[in-house]
Amino acid sequence: MEPIQPGKSTYESVAFSPVSELENDRYPSSGPLDAEAIVRTYDSGSVFFRRWGAVVIDNLLVMMIFFGLFAWSIAASVNDDSVWNTIAPFLLVGCYFILSPIYYWLLETFFGTTVGKWALRVRVVNASGELPGIGKAAIRNLMRILEFCPLMFYGIIAGIIVLIQQKKQRLGDMAAKTFVLKARDLPPLERSRLVGMRITHILVIVVALGCLIGGISSVSSQITVDHAVETADGRYEMTVPWSWSADASTESELAVSSGLSTYNVVVGSDNEETLEEKVSLEDYHEIIRNWLPGAIHAELADGETEQTSLNGRTAYRFEMNGEEDGETQAYTITVTGDEDKFYYIIAWLSDDGKAGESYHSFRERYSGKLNKLERIVATFKPINGGVSI
């Protein structure tokens, strides 16, 4: 501290010493702030890294919310095959890219800060250091859609522009004439707006955490929850794992497969009209056994047909093997039905076989998966026990 000059009081020489020209720019005694003058005093990285960190935080929150909604829509589509539930997951993906800018727009309009900007202590303002308002915030965030698109390398170019600009503006800021300043260089928000901001930010965080927890719970429950699929005639059903889906375009009674592996099940049917004569279940099994190998280019496995019981109904079971496109197929065929209709169930898995590997060895190697297929076929039963043999 400089020595006190003779004839001057302590207050004159210390407490009321003149402020610097820069301080006058930042904190004018009256009138609006000069946001551009303030932002020019920042070094290149100080605001950039805060803005980058804020984007990361905000995107995480928005993604948590959409993850929860997406997981819920997936769970709904598994349990309900209506058109809406089928397309809902895809609509949500599209909505993410539309609604995400709305999050930024509303929060920056009313508070100048999103949750991320609040956490990193920066605020969006106009040239006078005031809140940008609904119009400027809208322009700023409409440009965000362009700046964060693949052609702009998902915001990388926007970040480079902020780094090299003296005004530290991205394209959206230039178009809207807005600036991002450190909160310490701005007057605090009025009390009512500050309270509203805190409540809104806390609400966003709570909703995001709730959606994340709900989404994880929904996904984890779906992993272990099976669902029933019906035959086209609505008379029989089969229970399959959550990841399996039915092929609506098939001409068979039912065709289901797993999107995560090479499991497949197809159900076909015949009645007296298609058979052109009345036959017994045993005779029908012989018809299928003689016809199917040529139809799917496979060969019967060693061993005779096994007569068994499927949910209290008589059934016949035999095996076939084949090769296609360099892969080996192991088939298990089950024939069952009732007095009105017969069904044949083709369950198979397809995978790369080893050089010189026999069909028997292939089945031994995949015995666990084949057993899983058998357990799925074992769930084939009349809906509500409505038919019997």
From TrEMBL:
It is found in: Cell membrane. Keywords: Cell membrane, Membrane, Transmembrane, Transmembrane helix. The lineage of its organism: Bacteria, Bacillati, Bacillota, Bacilli, Bacillales. Residues 48-177 form the RDD domain. The keyword Nucleus does not apply. It is a multi-pass membrane protein. Its main location: membrane. The chain crosses the membrane at residues 52-75, 87-106, 145-164, 199-219. The keyword Transmembrane helix applies. GO terms for cellular component: plasma membrane. Pfam families: RDD. It comes from Paenibacillus curdlanolyticus YK9. This is RDD domain containing protein.
